[in-house]
Structures are given as C-alpha cells and as structure tokens.
Design brief:
Layout (H helix, E strand, L loop, with lengths): L4 E4 L9 H6 L1 H5 L6 H4 L5 E4 L6 H4 L11 E4 L12 H4 L4 H9 L4 E3 L5 H6 L11 E5 L3 H14 L2 E4 L22 H10 L4 H15 L1 H6 L1 H9 L3
Parallel strand pairs: 1-2, 2-3, 3-4, 5-6
Antiparallel strand pairs: 4-5
Helix pairs in contact: 10-12
The structure holds NADP nicotinamide-adenine-dinucleotide phosphate.
NADP nicotinamide-adenine-dinucleotide phosphate binds next to helix 4.
C-alpha cells in the first residue's frame, strides 16, 4: 500500500503513525516542513486524532481539501474530560457530529482501539487471534481506504456499516477497546445497547474517581466525578 496520509495529532493515539514506518520510509527521508493547510492538499487520507470538542477548530483546514480525500475520525466523546455537547447527549452518533463540524463525510476507525494496543499488539494479516478494529462510514470507497490502513497497521478491519450506526463502536459499548477477534467483534457490535453506553461511561468515571490511584493522578477528574454525585 503506497499512499500519502496526513495525521492531525501528536498525542498518545498517534501510534497509528507506525503505519508510516511500514509504508513510506523513503518518503519520510525526503520530508520537508509545510503548513497544515499545504500538507492536507496532496494526500489520499487525513487521520484526525484530536480531542473531540476541538473539531470546530480544525474545520477551516478542510476548506480546500478535495472531495476525494478520505477523512478518518478516531475520536471519542468524554464530556467530563472536555465539555458536554447537547447534540451528542441527545443521541447523535459522535462521528455524525464530527462530520457536521468539518463539513464533509468521515469514516470512523481506530477510535475503539487503545494507543497501547496499536503500539504493541498489531500482527500480520492471517495471524491467529489478530485483533479486529471496527470501521464505520457511508462511502464504500472511503471505508475501503480506512480498512486498508487498519490492515496495514496490524489489525483486522470489520465493517460496522454506516455512520448512523457508528454508536455501536463508541465508548462503553462491548466493541470499545476490548481487543476482540473478527468474529467476536461482529457479535459485540450487534449486542451494543445505545441507551446503556452513556450510563456505563458515567459509571466508569465514578469507578475511576473512587480509586486511590485516580485520586492521586487526576484530581481534576475526581472533582468532576464528585460534582456528579458518584
Ligand atoms: N489515547 C488512546 O488510547 C485513544 C484511543 C482511541 C481513541 N482516542 C481518541 O483520539 C483522540 C486523541 O487522543 P490522544 O489520547 O492522542 O489525546 P492527547 O494525547 O491528549 O493528544 C491530543 C493531541 O491533539 C492535539 N490538539 C489539541 N487541540 C488541537 C487543535 N485544536 N488542533 C489541532 N490539534 C490539537 C494536541 O496538541 P497539543 O499538545 O499541541 O495541544 C495533542 O497533540 C481523542 O479524541 C481520543 O478520544 C484515543
């Protein structure tokens, strides 16, 4: 797979970049510094891996990006980490909201796999127990690009159908960061319960907040959890 991918990130989840080391070694040696606006002009795919609530900030970057460029959204909504967004709390799938913010279609991928999993657990295609990663989107060609990237990164892509259905791979669903194989992931996507996921996410926050480690490491998070009467 010889493609040019632009990554908007540099945080923990930037492990997807390992893919570049596999496929673009020669080009990396010839790399030169360009602005974000220039960099997104000549790529087949853009991988967005920034805090969820920051998407409105990057919208202008897409003004002149060709329609054929595939945009991959890796984000997750954690209201206690950033800010509450009424549309999402009302049930709008997270990547649908992202798509609206940047004004173009997105494919949801890599959101349901931890950075540490990406960095350490990728395996060659066909390996026994290879971990599967859900890919949701409305454009089959765009989804195929994302699926190839998932495969090249060391994971089995699983089509989780359209973006409206992408809540099935959001935080606190059975498919979210649970390191399942393809058949297990398909079953997990089917068994997701849309109403329970936000409740599970809140319960997780309360569980974190009650642990001594969290109290020591993330005092701000703990304060927010207490404000929610955990
Ligand atoms: N970490 C994981 O295991 C994991 C797993 C699945 C999905 N995700 C999702 O991936 C996304 C990124 O997570 P992360 O763990 O990598 O977060 P992170 O370590 O906090 O990194 C976030 C990155 O986004 C950049 N950023 C923040 N605001 C920005 C803006 N307005 N424009 C451009 N870049 C901006 C930050 O740059 P500065 O440092 O310069 O501010 C930082 O490099 C989140 O939506 C998260 O839910 C993460």
């Amino acid at each position: 797979m010889d493609r040019k991918i632009f990554f908007i990130d540099s945080g923990r989840h930037a492990g997807i970049r390992g893919f570049l080391r596999l496929s673009a070694g020669r080009r990396q040696k010839r790399a030169k510094a360009v602005s974000k606006e220039e960099a997104v002009q000549d790529v087949e795919a853009i991988v967005l891996s920034i805090p969820f609530a920051k998407y409105p900030d990057v919208a202008p970057l897409f003004n002149n990006v060709p329609e054929a460029t595939v945009v991959i959204d890796t984000s997750n909504y954690y209201p206690f980490r950033e800010r509450a967004i009424a549309d999402i709390d009302g049930g709008k799938p997270e990547s649908v909201w992202v798509s609206e913010q940047i004004g173009r279609p997105v494919v949801k991928a890599f959101n349901a796999v931890l950075a540490v999993t990406l960095a350490e657990k990728g395996q060659p295609s066909g390996a026994s127990g290879r971990i599967a990663v859900p890919v949701a989107g409305d454009d089959p060609e765009a989804k195929a690009v994302a699926a190839k990237l998932v495969d090249a990164t060391g994971f089995d892509p699983v089509d989780s159908v359209g973006l409206l259905n992408s809540w099935r791979q959001q935080p606190s669903t059975p498919a979210y960061c649970t390191e399942l194989t393809t058949s297990e992931l398909k079953a997990a996507l089917q068994s997701a319960d849309k109403a329970r996921a936000p409740e599970n996410r809140e319960a997780l926050l309360c569980s974190f907040a009650s642990s001594l480690v969290t109290t020591l490491s993330f005092p701000a998070l703990t304060t927010k959890a207490h404000a929610r009467s955990c």
